[in-house]
Structures are given as C-alpha cells and as structure tokens.
Design a protein that fits this description.
- It is a single chain.
- The chain is mainly alpha-helical.
- The protein folds into three domains: 26-216, no CATH class; 225-376, Phosphorylase Kinase, domain 1; 546-688 and 696-848, no CATH class.
- The strands form two sheets. A six-stranded mixed sheet has the order 1-2-3-4-6-5, sandwiched between helices. Strands 7-8-9 form a three-stranded antiparallel sheet, with helices on one face.
- Helix 22 (594-604) runs antiparallel to helix 28 (742-769), helix 23 (612-628) packs antiparallel against helix 24 (633-645) and helix 24 (633-645) packs across helix 25 (650-679).
- The longest helix is centred in the last third of the chain and has 30 residues, at 650-679.
Length: 852
C-alpha cells in the first residue's frame, strides 16, 4: 500500500510592502505638550514664588545635611556611576543594532537639551536657589567632582534617553528612562541637584527629544507587516500575499490598510496600534473642549476593532448596505486588526482612492478585474445615482438610530452597477442621540456638496432620505457640527476657492458684510427650498460660547483689574464736580471718533471695497474685545473673522490685519518723532523707559533655527509647500494691490495717523477741562512715550501702566499732581471704560447680523 501524503506546511505569505519609513508620531506631540506644561509650571513657580521656592528647597537641604556623611557619599557615588554607565550602555545597544538613524536623532537631542537647560538654569532657576546650597556639598567625597552630574548633564541624558526610545524594545526603553529618572531623584536626595532643577531637567529632556523626533521622524508605533501576516494565519485565513496600500491612499487616523490575497479571494485589513490610539487623543480632547456632546470612545486597539466589527453587523441588519465583516483579531506588539471582504471592482465615491482603485497591478490574481478609467471617474449621472443609493443606506441607519460619525464620500464604496456599500464604522454609536444623527447628515451633505455643488448634493439627499428626514439636518448645518471631520476642511477649501474665483472675476468688487461664499449657507437654503420648510433655530453644540468666554474673562478682569481701580472712584467723582462739563462732554465724541479712523485703516488694507457702517460696528466690537484681551488679540481676531465672512481669502485677510498693525506702528513712530521734535529738549528731566531689546537676538536665532528645520527636513518642506506657500501668495497679492492704489494708501495713512492724534486731542481737552494748561506738543510727547511704556505691560489696553505714565509725565512737566490725576482718570473713563458698554452692544449686533 502507498502511504497517504503528509500534509504540507503552509507557505509563508509573501509581503509586498514598502520599506519602513519614519513618521511624526502623535506620542511625541503629546509628550511635547505635557513636558512643556511641566516646564512652564516650574519656571512660573520659580519666578512667581521665589521666596517660597527657596524656603522649600532650604528645608530639603537641611534634611539632607542631617544624614550621615557615609550615606550621602554612597548616594552621590551611585548617581555618578549611573550617570556615566547609563548613556554608554544606551549608545552600545543602539550601535550593536546598527541603528545609525537613531544616533542622528540622539546626538542633536542631547545637545539641544543641554543648551536649553544651560540657558534656563543660569537665567531663571538660579534666583530660586537657597544661598546655603553650595556649602552642603563641600564635605562630600565622590568619584568625580562634587556637584556632578549637574542639571544640564541630566537634561542632556533625559533628552537622549527619550529620543532613543522608538528604536529600543519596551524593556530597554523603560530601563534607560528609569535610570535617568532615578539619577535625578537620587541627586535631589543627596542635594547634588536641587528638586526644582531636577524637575526642569526632566521636562527639558522631554521637550528637546519631542522637538527632534517631530522634525526628524521616528519608526511608527504600530505592528509591522510580518506580525500582521502571522496574525492573519493564526486566525485561519490562508493568505498568500499581503499588500500594503500605498501611502498616498492611506487615510489619516484610520490605521494602516493592507490587502490580503487568500486562496479563496481578497480581504481588506485595517491594522490599529498605539499610534492610532494616541493620535485619536487630540481628536477626542478637541471635541470634548468645544462640544457639549462629543460622543467619542476612548478604547484600546483590540476593543476598537471589536467595536467596529459589532457595528458592521448591527448596521447590516438594518438593511443598510455595508462591507462584510470577517473577523477582528489581536496583532503582536499591542495592535489589532479588522478584516473585511474586498471587491477589486469597487471604487470610492467621486473617484477617490480605495482598496480596489489602485489594485489593478495585482488584481488579476484574485480573479476580479479592476475598474477602468471611465468607471473610476464616473459621469455626473452615475455619481448622483450612487450618492442617492448611499443616502438610502443612511436612511436605514437613521431609522434604527445608528450614527456612523465618519460619514464622508471616502467611506462609500461604489460597484460597477452603481450600488454602494458603507465602511469605516470605528466611531459608530448605537442608540445615537438626535445631535449625533443630525451631525451624520450634515457631514455627508457638506462633503458631497463641496464636490458636486449644493444643488446636486441636496437633490440626491432628498431622493434617498425623503423631505421629512432631510429637513432634520437644518439645525446642524453649522461649522461646529463638522469639527473633527474632513468635512470642515472640505467646506473651508470650497469657500476659499469660491472667494478666489470671485476676486479674479471682479478685481474691484464691493464686499457685503457676512456675504462671502458659504457652502453651509447655500446648502441650508437648498434644503429649505426642497423641503418647503422655514429655517429652524440652530442646534446648541458649543460647550464654550462667546457669552461664556466673555463672562469668564470679564470676571477675571473685575477681580484683577477693575477692583483695584475702584480705590480711585472717589477721586474721579470729586474731579467731575469741579470740571468744566462742556469741555468734558466735548471729549466724548472725539474719543468715539477713533473707531471711524480704525474703519478707514481696515478699509485701506484690502483691495476690495468694504461697506462702511458694518466696518465701523466691527471696530466698536473690536475695541470691546481689546479691553478684555492683552495686546489687542481679541480685536485682531474679530477683524480677521469679519473679513473672512465678507468674502476675503484667509491669506489676504491675515495680510490685511498684519498691514493694520504695521501701519499703526509706523504711524506711531512718525507721530512720536514729530511731537518729540516739537517739544525739544527743554524738559529733559522727563525719563519714561522703553522696553528692552535684550530678547531680540535670541528671537532672531530661534527664527533662523526654525527656518533651517523647515528648509532641511522633508516634513518642513512639505508643510511650507502645502500650507505656507498659498497663504503667502495670497498675502503678497493683497499687499501688491494695496500698494498700487492711491485711494487705499490714503485710507491707510489717514486711519493710522488719525488714531493717535484723536487720542492726543481728547487728552488735551480733558486736561483743559481741569485747568491744566500744557502745550499740545508736550501733551503729544508725553502721550506717545506713555503708550510705549504701556505696550510693554500685559494688561488689556495698558490699564494701570498708561495712567501711571501719563500722570508721571505731566507732573514732570510742572503741572499740579491733583488736577493732572483727575484729568487722566476722566480721560481713561471716556476712552477706556466707555467703549466697554458701547462695544458690547456692537458685538451683539454684528453677531446677530452674521458679520462675524
């Protein structure tokens, strides 16, 4: 008899994957934020509570001095041995593994950590050290010089340890990091390093390492293709070839996608790792900060894969057409995978990338045929039919209260016969709330409208959903509903392209406040017309609204700024009784007229024509925000938003706001020089300090380093090309158009010069009302010098600093202190405090009318 053949062992799958590439990991961004927060807190503690920090650290030194000398010597010796052997061992491990790319990151990180620590320790932390500290170390006996390792060396070691982590195994990574942290703790216990210096060293290590890893890249924290192939074999799938989807067709925050060819067909494999969990952290935190109902799940990779598997099964039972789930399975290295069926003939709606869209090069081995060019692109009629079919599946999900929560055309697969299937249910929810269901409709309607226009998108949705269900999307057609979704970027790009087209079509057009291109507004109008309904009230989605933010800032303003000013309320009230009321009242309209000059300045910084009344209203609202935010940040943001809503492209709007700041600075310089020359040197005893420029050189060096990183690294060059270039191009076009228009230059000059001159005139009138007779040239000189002093303070509008500088300057010119103080307080009452109620009303008006 012939013996039966022995079963053959399955052949190892063939891996068709590109070489491993370094990426910018979310974990490094998280570490940078956490380490930076710890470092800032340490610096603030050292600066703001200098005496308290000295006392606490003095107590520790006293406790250490009480220890036996032998114990302290042993601690110092252990720290010094670990500080020498730890870095040497790490370098040996990296070299033995032949990871030269790791050394190219470790060495710059160590140098950057030492540089940052040296600058910080010798400029900030030195002042928080107790005077007794160096004397404690004099009786130590150590292998190396006493006081070594220093905080600078420990920061360098921490930077190197964190940077080498991605190239080390988890065990080695933990060992190296624990040795560094232990060295810091033991150094603090032996008083070789002060606690605050040790905490700063660890924080600087995290900051420096994260910066280097974010710019240089690191291996991804995901399972490799071999581990994925082993997991597929372990779960019973007889795969022959594993293909990784090209990087251009991968989808952000959705893991790594593979195609697995088996003896029975093809499967799509999506692999999740710790990197995806960390990257999703920013998405969850951002939505939780802004939205009242974020509804995000924070689960590990395996639980996320199992959740999506369950949601696909549940969605399929509703009657919706979805991809067929196969299995969810863990992958070695802390990852997990979700396996679904794959049809090589399918493409993504609107011709985007999909598993089958790029698989023509090897699709023949699976028995399927790849879609041809004409099928991939699709005619408008076929696209509308496919989108309508997808909306029918969405209707089934809505009926059973299942929210997809990532419903975009990229997650709609289209077969050659026009039928569609939905995929990517990782964030889906059962028993979804009306907000989650309405947001689903808004996201798909916005993303499809950005591709095919609002009329076609609404027509497809109406055919698939029906008028009653389609009308439920109206409260959610707002920007907040798109946060954390690609829909927000798609809508912004659509509106930007529309603004560019309008600008090219009409070079000297007249803008309409709040009338710029808005896809969401057009979609809302189309839905109301199709469903024959009135516009409903927008859903309340924001956790932090303008009113809440202003109430919070206002409360802080009252506590920290307004309450101390109440001590002068009696003086100001008494001054009003003795003042010449007609002169005081004459100053009120002059100060309010400054908003008109601001409107002229803003109108001159853009080539288009701005409507004047809304522009003036926005300037009053900006003045209100400037009263509660330092350095005019709130006003600049509101002006930027006003220009964007009026139809000005983001780059042009930003350039316009920047031009306003530059023109204001130049005008202030011209007015200052004029009044200083007018006043002369007769009162050389007036000395008002100006901000020091000792930070100028470090700032220039930081800018040069940042420019070098952007120019020399691949991610930096891509960032400049994709994000910065279009922005700078639009800004340059705006500046060029303004510079060649005499009308715009006149408006800029008149507005910029009129702002300080009107304030000087109001101050002179207030001084005259209280019997203070100082020549106008001297009033202008004191006012401009006081503005320079007040600009160096972080308080909104220079509150407190401007008053003190004005009173000091006027009294130095020989005026009586009492009348000058009263005049300055009344001037600030009109110019600062009166703008708050007027600006608050203006802000409500411009918001209600949709100008911002």
């Amino acid at each position: 008899m012939t013996a039966p053949p022995l079963p053959q062992a399955p052949q190892a799958p063939v891996l068709d994957v590109p070489p491993e590439r370094d990426v910018r990991r979310a974990a490094d961004a998280v570490r940078l934020i956490v380490s930076g927060a710890v470092l800032v807190a340490t610096v603030l503690l050292a600066v703001a509570t200098r005496s308290f920090a000295r006392q606490v650290q003095h107590g520790l030194i006293t406790a250490v001095a009480a220890l036996p000398v032998g114990v302290r010597d042993v601690l110092v010796a252990v720290v010094q041995i670990a500080a020498v052997l730890g870095p040497v061992a790490a370098v040996v491990v990296v070299v033995r593994r032949r990871r030269g790319d790791a050394l190219l990151r470790v060495l710059p990180a160590a140098a950057l950590g030492a540089l940052l620590a040296g600058a910080l320790v010798h400029t900030v932390l030195t002042h928080s050290r107790p005077a007794e500290w160096p004397a404690v170390l004099t009786d130590h006996r150590a292998l190396l010089p006493v006081g070594w390792p220093s905080a600078v060396y420990l920061a360098s070691c921490a930077s190197a340890a964190v940077t080498a982590g991605p190239w080390l195994s988890r065990r080695w990574r933990h060992a190296v990091w624990q040795s560094v942290a232990g060295s810091v703790v033991l150094s603090a216990a032996a008083a070789a390093v002060l606690p605050m210096d040790g905490v700063a060293a660890l924080a600087i290590g995290g900051v420096a390492a994260s910066i280097v890893l974010l710019f240089g890249g690191a291996p991804p924290d995901r399972p490799g293709p071999r581990a994925v192939a082993n997991a597929l074999v372990a779960c019973g799938l007889p795969i022959t070839v594993l293909h990784e989807v090209p990087a251009s067709d991968q989808r952000d925050s959705e893991g790594i996608r593979y195609l697995a060819e088996t003896t029975e067909g093809r499967n799509s494999v999506r692999v999740l790792g710790r990197e995806d969990h960390n990257r999703d952290l920013f998405h969850r935190l951002w939505r939780r900060l802004l939205l009242t109902e974020p509804g995000d799940l924070a689960i590990e990779p395996l639980a996320a894969a199992e959740h999506e598997l369950v949601m696909l099964v549940a969605a399929g039972h509703t009657g919706a057409r979805v991809v067929e789930p196969v299995t969810a399975f863990p992958v070695a290295g802390g990852g997990a995978m979700l396996v679904t069926d794959d049809d090589s003939r399918e493409r993504v709606l609107f011709g985007g990338a999909a598993g089958g869209a790029w698989s023509g090069s090897f699709g023949g081995s699976s028995g399927g045929s790849s879609a041809g060019p004409e099928d991939a692109a699709g005619s408008p009629d076929s696209e509308d039919a496919a989108l309508t079919d997808a909306w029918r599946s969405v209707a089934h999900l809505q009926q059973h209260r299942i929210a997809h929560r990532a419903l975009t055309p990229d997650h709609i697969l289209v077969a050659p016969d026009g039928s569609t299937r939905l995929e990517a249910f990782a964030r889906a929810r059962l028993d979804a709330s009306p907000t989650q269901l309405g947001t689903d409709l808004a996201v798909l309607l916005a993303t499809s409208g950005a591709r095919i226009g609002p009329e076609r998108a609404v027509a497809c949705a109406l055919a698939g959903l029906g008028p009653d269900r389609l009308a439920t999307v109206l409260p959610y057609l707002q920007t907040l509903a798109l946060i954390g979704s690609p829909a927000r970027h798609a809508v912004a790009e659509h509106d930007r392209a529309a603004a560019q087209a309008a600008r090219a079509a009409a070079k000297h057009r007249t803008l309409r406040a709040g009338g710029g291109p808005s896809l969401l507004r057009d979609l809302s109008a189309a839905v109301r017309e199709a469903c024959h309904v009135e516009e409903p009230k927008k859903a309340h989605l924001a956790r932090l609204t303008w009113k809440k933010a202003l109430a919070l800032v206002g409360a802080l303003l009252v506590i920290h700024l307004i309450l101390p000013q109440l001590a002068n309320a009696g003086t100001a009230t008494a001054a009003l009784k003795t003042a010449d009321w007609w002169w005081v009242l004459a100053a009120v309209p002059i100060v309010l007229l400054s908003q008109v000059f601001s409107a002229f300045l803003q109108a001159g910084t853009i080539p288009e024509r701005l409507p004047f009344p809304p522009n003036v209203l926005v300037q009053f609202a900006s003045s209100f925000l400037n009263r509660i935010t330092p350095n005019n940040v709130g006003g600049m943001a509101l002006n930027l938003r006003f220009l964007q809503k009026a139809g000005v492209e983001t780059g042009s709007a930003t350039a316009a706001v920047g031009l306003q700041s530059v023109a204001g600075a130049l005008a202030s310089g011209i007015v200052s020089v004029t009044f200083f020359a007018w006043t002369g040197q007769r009162h050389s005893g007036v000395h008002l300090g100006t901000p020091s420029g000792h930070w100028l050189l470090p700032a220039i060096c930081a800018l040069l380093v940042a420019a070098g990183l952007l120019a020399l690294t691949g991610p930096g060059r891509r960032f400049v090309h994709d994000k910065v270039w279009h922005f700078l191009k639009a800004a340059g076009q705006t500046v060029a158009a303004v510079a060649t228009s005499p009308t715009r230059l006149t408006e800029i000059a008149g507005g910029a010069l009129g702002l300080p001159l009107i304030q000087i005139s109001a101050l002179a009138i207030c001084l005259h009302a209280f019997g203070v007779h100082i020549p106008l040239g001297q009033v202008g000189a004191v006012y401009m010098a006081s503005r320079i002093v007040a600009s160096a303070t972080p308080t909104p509008g220079g509150l407190g600093a401007l008053e003190a500088a004005l009173i000091t300057g006027m009294t130095a010119l020989g005026a009586a202190a009492g009348p000058v103080t009263s005049a300055v307080l009344v001037y600030r009452l009109i110019s600062f405090w009166l703008n708050i109620p007027v600006g608050a009303v203006a802000l409500q008006i411009v918001q209600r009318r949709g100008y911002v």
